[in-house]
Amino acid sequence: MTDDTTRDRRTVLRCAAMAALVGAGAPILAACGGNDTSGTSGGTGTGTAPTGSAPSGSGPASGTPSAGGGGTVLGPVSDVPVGGGKVFTDAKVVVTQPTAGQYKGFSAICTHQGNPIGSVENGQIVCPFHNSHFSITDGSPVSGPAATPLPAVNVKVQGTNIIESA
């Protein structure tokens, strides 16, 4: 090969290697994203339960607009146990019920590195990525690397459903 051909080949290989490194690094940088909470409201995040109980599995599918136009239906109140909660993944909302009839809403995005919240276990909201735990009462960090509380999301009870309200 001539010097020009060798130099051109090296340039092509070097550019291909750089493109591969940049392409492989993009998902890593995205996973280390910031604390984008623009989709959450800064309200109190409290709701009140109706008298009586809802039958299991009742109500519309998660994330559907409510019939009354007062927000988005997250799911039935029966999905949220007393002393626990449920992650509504599509809506990126965690709803907890610290005491009977008291519903609280929080962002389902961890304040540590922006990963999705995984579950509510043993009375705590849990992010599985770095093991941050948050209080079901006020969203404050209990353990793990997260230092900032989960932002509150306004929720209310409408009939037998939990609604994310504006």
UniProtKB/TrEMBL annotation:
The keyword RNA-binding does not apply. It holds the Pfam family Rieske. Residues 72-164 form the Rieske domain. The chain crosses the membrane at residues 12-31. GO terms for molecular function: 2 iron, 2 sulfur cluster binding; metal ion binding; monooxygenase activity; oxidoreductase activity, acting on paired donors, with incorporation or reduction of molecular oxygen. Keywords: 2Fe-2S, Iron, Iron-sulfur, Membrane, Metal-binding, Transmembrane, Transmembrane helix. InterPro entries: Rieske_2Fe-2S, Rieske_2Fe-2S_sf, TAT_signal. Residues 40-76 are annotated as: Disordered. Residues 47-65 have a biased composition (Low complexity). This is Nitrite reductase/ring-hydroxylating ferredoxin subunit.
